[in-house]
C-alpha cells in the first residue's frame, strides 16, 4: 500500500488527523502524523519555533523512512515551497493542502 505523512496546521496537533489515520490504517496504508514544533505535545520553546523549524520537522519525518510518501497538510502551502529546497529523495510528487472549506465538502486540491 502507500505511505502517508499528515501535517497539521496552526492551533492544533497530530490529533486532528485521528479519524483519517484510522481509516487509512484500516485500508492497509502506512500513516504518520506528528506534532510540529511548539504545537500539540511538542515542547519546543517558543523562541525556537519558526516556519523553518516546521519545514525542517516535515523533512525529517519524510526522510526517516525510505518508503516514498505522499504528504498532506492543513493550509500549509509555505511548507510545500520550503520542502522543495530540501533533498528528500523519498517524497512523492503528490502533496495535498486541505483547507477548511475542502474538509467540509470532501474535495481535495493538489498543490
How would you characterize this protein structure?
The structure is a single chain. The protein has a single domain (3-110), classed as Rossmann fold (3-Layer(aba) Sandwich), CATH 3.40.50. The protein starts with a strand and ends with a strand. The model is unreliable at 99-111 (pLDDT under 50). Helix 2 (51-63) crosses helix 3 (77-83). By secondary structure, it is an alpha/beta fold. The chain has helices at 18-26, 51-63, 77-83, 100-105, and strands at 3-7, 30-34, 69-74, 91-98, 109-110.
For the record, the CATH class is Alpha Beta
Low-confidence segments:
99-111
User: What are the secondary-structure elements, in order, as H or E?
Assistant: EHEHEHEHE
Mean pLDDT: 76
| Structural shape | globular
Radius of gyration: 13 Å
Number of domain modules: 1
CATH fold description:
Rossmann fold
The structure class reads alpha/beta
CATH architecture: 3-Layer(aba) Sandwich
**E-strand count:** 5
The proportion of residues forming helix, as a percent range, comes to 25-40%
Kindly estimate the percentage of residues that lie in beta strands according to DSSP.
15-25%
Fourth-tier CATH superfamily name: Alpha/Beta hydrolase fold, catalytic domain
Largest sheet: 5 strands, mixed
Total helical segments: 4
Strand order of the largest sheet: 2-1-3-4-5
N- to C-terminal distance? 22 Å
